[in-house]
Design brief:
Helices cover 35% and strands 21% of the residues. With 332 residues, it is of the alpha+beta class. β6 and β7 form a beta hairpin. α3 (30-42) runs parallel beside α4 and α7 (112-124) crosses α8 (133-144).
Length: 332
């Protein structure tokens, strides 16, 4: 069994290595690539010589070192983790599918190895640390799903609204222009039964302007621009503020007002006009983790998705489309 699974993993790696040129074209330094691989897997870069670090990652992922030059091995490894191929989705794609199958939510802000361990604990009570990580992930998927994970193209229309929540507290006192702000998706983004981005997927915003506290009691302000959604596949979905964002924000505000005391403390960030980003005023002292923000797709995007099997389609928790106001019939 071990040799069979390891053989499959190495075959997958070979498929990904064939497409590694896309990363090589970026001509990133070997030090940069190694750091990126380690941040994806462990959350931070490791210390030591480059060759020892690469050997260590390969052994942890596959149980052995792989052939090729340093650049070839790094590019293929990064491709295997992050991009994948149509016949073999990436580690991050498969990992997110497994998390969604277990808890209907992904832990997109945590490193991959820790996420695999968390799944093992949820399923079996203890992590299987004596096995290569790739083998462990394949084993998890075998326990959860009857069919292999595949990916399929799906088209997301322009103006599709997504709902997110701040992943950490944001304060006008400490925010700086250019800071990245992580937001997590609050509902599955799907096209029919094709899952594009599960709940918990990462959205990225950037601080575009900061005004510190001023005289005469005028509050501090920080403006943020919600820019991207990172779906299951390697693509990025670019976001903006538009009419649909404004309507979704207004509808959410009305629902919060109607709910009254049941949502005391909930914060909804409203757009500053169209394409203007979002304004956070310092008179709130700080914007807590969980503050809600809407955005919409800036264009039509064709991205990789997971075709959810019929038996799992009931788990999809999509944002319900908000019905448009009906026009009153013409009076005669």
């Amino acid at each position: 069994m071990k040799k069979t699974v390891l053989g499959l993993v190495l075959a997958i790696f070979a498929v990904c290595a064939a497409g590694a040129g896309a990363f090589a074209e970026e001509q990133q330094s070997t030090v940069f690539l190694m750091g990126r691989v380690e941040r994806l897997l462990y959350g931070s870069e490791r210390t030591g010589g480059l060759i020892d670090r690469l050997n260590g990652v390969e052994k942890e992922m596959f149980g052995r070192e792989l052939p090729g030059s340093i650049a070839e091995r790094q590019n293929a490894l990064l491709n295997f983790i992050e991009k994948g191929a149509p016949e073999q989705p990436s580690v991050l794609f498969k990992l997110a599918v497994a998390e969604w199958a277990v808890g209907q939510k992904v832990d997109s802000l945590s490193p991959a190895v820790g996420r695999v361990e968390a799944l093992e604990v949820d399923l079996e009570g203890t992590p299987q640390v004596d096995r290569p990580v790739s083998m462990r992930l394949e084993r998890i998927l075998g326990l959860l799903l009857s069919d292999p994970v595949t990916m399929q193209d799906a088209e997301i229309p322009a103006g599709t609204v997504v709902k997110g929540a701040l992943s950490r507290t944001l304060s006008p006192k400490t925010a700086k222009k250019g800071d990245l702000v992580d937001i997590t998706l609050q509902n599955d983004l799907a096209v029919g039964a094709n899952l594009v981005a599960p709940r918990g997927s990462r959205m990225q915003a950037t601080v575009t302007e900061v005004t510190k506290p001023r005289s005469f009691g005028r509050p501090a302000e920080v403006k943020i621009s919600v820019e991207k959604l990172f779906p299951l596949g390697p693509e990025e979905i670019f976001l903006t503020v538009g009419e649909n964002t404004k309507k979704a924000t207004e509808a959410e505000s009305a629902q919060m007002a109607a709910a009254g005391t049941s949502v005391v403390g909930a914060i909804l960030l409203g757009p500053i006009g169209l394409a203007g980003g979002f304004l956070v005023r310092g008179d709130l002292k700080e914007i807590p983790e969980g503050a809600v923000v809407f955005a919409e797709t800036a264009d039509t995007f064709r991205v990789s998705s997971y075709p959810v099997p019929l038996g799992l389609q009931g788990m999809l928790k999509k944002e319900e489309p908000r019905p448009e106001e009906k026009k009153a019939p013409d009076s005669k």
